[in-house]
Write a structure and sequence with these properties.
By secondary structure, the chain is an alpha+beta fold. It folds into two domains: 77 residues, 2-Layer Sandwich (Pseudouridine synthase), CATH 3.30.2350; 133 residues, 2-Layer Sandwich (Pseudouridine synthase). Helix content is 21%, strand content 35%. The protein is built from six helices and 14 strands. It is globular. The N terminus is likely disordered.
Length: 230
């Protein structure tokens, strides 16, 4: 895209695939929009997939606004096993029996974790701790003790799929860690757990079913079908 193009400002709703980092997507987009600023509104872990908003040109000024928008996720919690990063790529550090989960317990969990709650971010996070990214310290085996902070869970739906699997649908505020939510839900059920799958379904009004697959971006650019909306 030429820098002097009459439509250089864009919020591109990309469906990040599993295995790609958010920076991989940024790098992919930067190559196609040379000379323009490119940023994103909220990182997704490599094992996760779903909505990743890429802001191009003057649209980068909207990054903070977009990051403050509510988000919706679908996740699967694997109960009875905990990993160091609280997600699928992590190393197993703990196993525990999984008790029988009743409908009453699910109702209690939903009530407890809906509204404004406090959660302790995972050690494997990009938050700063003693001047360094927490995950850098955690990966080297260092101790990370991040402070709890308040987040808002607007809606939480849980379904028991198997004796050791729970699916979640979560609508939440900025700063919410689904991995931390899974850890705390598992703890309240008397066991441990980690996030096995994670999909971001929405950021504000940007939906997963209207997102663009990575392998479709070049085709849309060639056909001039990119939805310029800034």
């Amino acid at each position: 895209m030429d820098k002097n193009n009459e439509r250089p400002d864009l919020i591109l709703n990309v469906r990040k695939p599993v295995g790609w980092t958010s920076f991989d997507v940024i790098r992919f987009i930067k190559y196609r929009f040379k000379g323009l600023k490119v940023g994103h509104a909220g990182t997704l872990d490599p094992f996760a997939e779903g909505v990743l908003l890429i802001c191009i040109g003057k649209a980068t000024k909207k990054v903070a606004e977009l990051m403050n928008a509510e988000k919706e996720y679908a996740a699967t919690i694997h109960l009875g096993v905990e990993t160091d990063s609280l997600d699928l790529p992590g190393q197993i550090i703990k196993t525990f029996d999984v008790p029988l989960i009743t409908e009453n317990e699910i109702t209690i969990i939903k009530e407890k974790f809906t509204g404004v709650i406090e959660q302790k971010p995972p050690a494997f996070s990009a938050l700063k701790y003693n001047g360094k990214r927490a995950y850098h310290i955690a990966r080297k085996g260092g101790e990370v003790n991040l402070k709890k902070r308040k987040v808002h869970i607007y809606k939480l739906d849980l379904t028991v799929k198997r004796e050791n699997r729970i699916t979640l649908n979560v609508i939440c505020s900025k700063g919410t860690y689904i991995r931390a939510l899974a850890r705390d839900i598992a703890s309240n059920l008397g066991t441990v757990g980690y996030v096995q799958t994670l999909i971001r379904k929405r950021i504000g009004s940007y939906l997963l079913n209207s997102s663009v697959e990575i392998n479709e971006i070049d085709k849309l650019l060639l056909k001039n079908q990119i939805n310029w909306n800034v």
